[in-house]
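FW: tagging you since you asked about this chain on Friday. Here's the raw sequence from the shared folder, copied in full. Didn't touch anything.
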Amino acid sequence: MAGAAAGAAVDAAGATAEATERAGAPLLVEAREQALLIAGLRLALALAGAVAAAARGVDRGAVLALLAVGIFALLLSVYGGDRRRRSELKFSEPQPMPADARFVGKARTLAHAAYPSTIGLTVLIAVALWPQPALSALLAGLLAGLAAMSLIGLTRLTSWEAARGTRFYVDPHTDTVYEAPR
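HL: got it, structure written out here
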């Protein structure tokens, strides 16, 4: 319920801001900035969840083990499939940056990246904390895995941008990738 409310707030804020933009002008986020911001938020929330699970009585060693299992499970499920190839395809042929492009601020960049996965997992961590603190530690591991995935993506983006001499921007509504010279 909290995740749905947060998503509605993000959508409402986006709709209000977009209504004031010129028709047809894409509203973009800088891809590396988004990856770095969401990685930091996910890591901070994962650590808070792990500390809270330990404070609720889960042994520190068990918390660390559950974090590791969550990270491993998330990375295996994401990178065990074709996700890596789909990412490469998405960024392989970006469109040129439109002259009338607008850029989203850091708060909206973070909000778009956090909904629904980061917000949803954080709510689940909080809900599970009282009846099942060990489950909270495992869920915190999944969130830490998402942070690791964001950092891996940041590394790949940085490499691709350096090779092309450009910066990548993404339209969060259409998932269209644009590039502009540095």
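FW: Strands lie at 27-30, 95-96, 102-103, 166-170, 177-181.
HL: agreed, and The chain has a mean pLDDT of 88.
FW: great, closing this out.
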